[in-house]
Design a protein that fits this description.
This protein is an alpha+beta fold and about 250 residues long. A hairpin with an 8-residue loop joins strand 3 and strand 4. Helix 2 runs antiparallel to helix 3. The radius of gyration is 38 Å and the shape is elongated. It is about 30% helix and about 35% strand.
Length: about 250
Amino acid sequence: MTALRALSLSSIVVAGAVACAPAMAQQPAPGSASMAMSPSTPLPMIVTRGQGETKITPDRARLEVSVQTRAATAADAGAQNAKKQQSVLDALRKLGFSGEQLSTVDYNLFPEMQYDKNGQSPRVVAYNATNTVRVDIRDVGMIGKAIDASLEAGANMISSLSFYSSNSDAARRAALASAVARARSDADAIATAAGGSIGALMEISTSDFAPPVIYNRAQMASDMSAKMATATPIEPGEQTVTAIVNARWAFVPR
């Protein structure tokens, strides 16, 4: 009985050792590479933001020309306005602007009120009418001529003038390339300073903004009895196309 009992106990000890062996084999040795980065440790990242710019010369413009009239009655104000605005449209068509380049963008007619100091009810003293036409100009060299012809024909307000480019795709892509290069250069510098290098690109996104060159609303008086002595000078200048990228790279320690 004693020999049998000892044999059974030895078997239990051996079996226990075998069962524990796989568990012990799974434990990494101290200082091994597997201890440096466990599966639960987040991968270190480097996030940068880059901005790129490129210049472009506008080749198109939008001009808004207005006619304002004032009369004792609404009908008279509207009639006078219609006559003058028609003259403006005729003058623009003579310059070569087609129907698709001319469009009415605003029309309003409102009473001009006078308020008595003694608190009496306000009364209408006149009516004002305004008609605004937008001119789509495809040759910036025609802007000054369009303004001059409009003023000579009866327009008395240049509501706005803005420039834009008909082909800004190439400039936008160049700005994007510059933004990406700057973001990567910053990421390289950060990684080097941190004692490593950048790894795979994990994410990249972009946003871009190219504001048009806009001249604010301004009234320009015209002398209806005589032509303007000099042509209106207009310089479109340059536009800046801006692109911004946000990028995320993996950080690789040395």
